[in-house]
Amino acid sequence: MGQLGEEIVVGEEIVNNISLKDLSKKLDEFAKARDWEKYHSPRNLLLAMVGEVGELSEIFQWRGEVDKGLPNWEDSDKEHLGEELSDVLLYLIRLADICGIDLADAASKKIVKNAIKYPPPKVTKDLH
User: Fold this and answer.
1) What is the pTM of this model?
2) CA distance readout (Å), 78 to 31, 109, 118, 122
């Protein structure tokens, strides 16, 4: 299912180095096993993802600016954040899959487009 050296485990075991394609396959299998495919229209998946983005926003709502790495956060708060980020990611992957979009390819192409659109500033050396 994954690439050589990956750990892909089902259930309560930890999964390491999983690809977007592996996640997509797991989500498809999950939906099929529960007969949820009929509910996974692009619109429904988008609305579900927006709901999860709202839950993600609530975590930051009253915290003000937060330092990179979240050094002052409790482990339980970081775990909750990870869960909400995962919900958004999983809905995004499922939405892309249902729409026939290769998300990894689209993201890679978007990075290239952004690099062209927003080139780094030219740095000139001060000769003094």
Assistant:
1) 0.81
2) 28, 31, 32, 38
